[in-house]
Design goal:
Blueprint: E1 3-8, H1 12-21, E2 26-31, H2 34-46, E3 50-55, H3 61-72, E4 76-82, H4 93-111, E5 120-124, H5 136-144, H6 150-154, H7 162-184, E6 190-196, H8 202-210, H9 213-222, H10 231-242, E7 252-256, H11 260-266
Helix pairs in contact: 1-10, 3-4, 4-7, 5-7, 8-9
């Protein structure tokens, strides 16, 4: 039976992940932007990948179900890389929560039905999750909650700026990965997340130019690695987590941020 790799979101990180993991496998790429999706599928096919494209809105359970059905019909799920998401400059705070928080939840929830021995999911979160205002008690509640209760736990969003809703969404991603590691484990699967720092992708460049430019520059200045990150940095981490070398790794978040989060913690913030 064919091995299947699914990648949601075909921005810089998603394309790199697809190319690293999809060779010799059935590759399914999914995105909300149909035109961009078609363009990337054509480029992958021209390079010899056996690729299927699916338009998906990850914040819609029915849409996610169609993606799962397509992947399940192609073979055995080996890797799921969930990169689809919105940054603070791309949408309202409410939409960020729907896509980044609920979208990740719906993907992990729905793809549970395809998990077999050796299946791995990697969700792209963000170092911003380590800057969220959630208390330890709130974090415990987010781990235990059912999917339909997650937004209720966030509570009113009127007083939160877009950036803070993004931080909360990404922190909840970390927590739900811990939950699903326990659900996928008995089925033979593993679940992890990656928290990128400032990465030179189209989304990252947009945040640098339109978002909290001074704050992001300050984070780059405090980085232990004196450069901006690349999509290949994230792709390498994804490939390792999905490979046999990481067979004992699940339920964790891997920070690929050049040491920015560590620097912030060393100054006494975000602890």
């Amino acid at each position: 039976m064919s091995e299947v790799v699914v990648v949601t979101g075909i921005g810089g990180m998603g394309v790199v992940a697809a190319r690293r993991l999809g060779n010799g496998r059935k590759l399914v790429i999914a995105d909300f932007d149909g035109a961009k999706l078609a363009s990337e599928a054509a480029a992958l096919a021209a390079d010899g990948f056996d690729v299927t494209s699916v338009e998906v809105d990850v914040s819609d359970r029915a849409s996610v179900a169609k993606l799962v059905a397509t992947a399940g019909g192609l073979g055995t799920l080996r890797a799921l890389v969930h990169t689809a998401g919105l940054s603070p400059t791309m949408a309202t705070g409410e939409r960020v929560l729907q896509v980044d928080l609920l979208g990740t939840e719906y993907i992990l929830e729905a793809f549970t039905s395809l998990v077999t021995q050796g299946t791995v999911a990697v969700c792209i979160a963000s170092m911003a999750g380590y800057m969220s205002p959630l208390t330890s008690e709130q974090c415990a509640a987010f781990i235990k909650a059912e999917a339909d209760d997650l937004l209720d736990l966030v509570g009113p969003t009127e007083g939160l700026d877009f950036g803070m809703t993004y931080c909360i969404a990404k922190r909840v991603n970390h927590l739900r990965v811990e939950r699903y590691a326990g659900i996928w484990g008995p089925l033979g699967g593993r679940v992890a997340s990656i928290s990128p720092g400032i990465i030179s992708t189209p989304m990252g460049q947009q945040e640098m130019s339109e978002g909290s430019t001074e704050q992001m520059q300050a984070q780059l200045d405090m980085s232990a690695v004196p450069r901006i990150g690349t999509a290949e940095d994230i792709g390498a981490a994804v490939q390792w987590l999905c490979g046999p070398e990481a067979s004992f790794v699940t339920g964790i978040d891997l920070r690929v941020d050049g040491g920015v989060t560590a620097a912030i913690h060393s100054m006494g913030f975000g602890l």
